[in-house]
Amino acid sequence: MEGMGQKEAALAAGYPAATIYNSLNSLNSSVQVARRLESLRKAKGGTIANKEDRETLWTSIMNDTSYAVGMRLEASKLLGKAQGDFVIAKEVKLTNVNPVVMIPGNTPSEWEQHWENSNE
Q1: Which of 45, 48, 29, 26 is nearest to 37 (CA)?
Q2: Cα–Cα distance for residue pair 72/83, rounded to 1 Å
Q3: Residue 62 contacts residue 72 (beta carbons within 8 Å)
Q4: What is the pLDDT of residues 105-120, one digit of tens each?
Q5: pTM value?
Q6: Contacts by 6-9 with C-beta closer than 8 Å and gap 24+?
Q7: Would you kindly state where each structural domain of the chain is located, as residue ranges?
Q8: How many CB atoms lie within 10 A of CB 14?
Q9: Rounded distance, CA 68 to CA 8, Å?
């Protein structure tokens, strides 16, 4: 949806707010979605920025001393977020739990069907 960020567009498209980040992760890793975005980019003359375009822009702003320090810091923060620099990983050990294998790209209904079939 033109002019919206990913989260806003997914919510407007009807994805549930409670699982929006899981939905975005699935959408961002979908080959079909990537193909559709590429076709939209071509149709619009390449005006839709992709991840590489954004990272290149943020890097150039961050390194350009003609920008105010606040803008350069914001570009640095956006670049770090995009590259996962601020993700805190915490290892949790669970006992008496069956391992779960996550397969990207499954819809909630596909997961539900998978678990129903695996418990038979």
Answers
A1: 48
A2: 17
A3: yes
A4: 777 777 777 777 776 6
A5: 0.41
A6: none
A7: 49-87
A8: 6
A9: 29
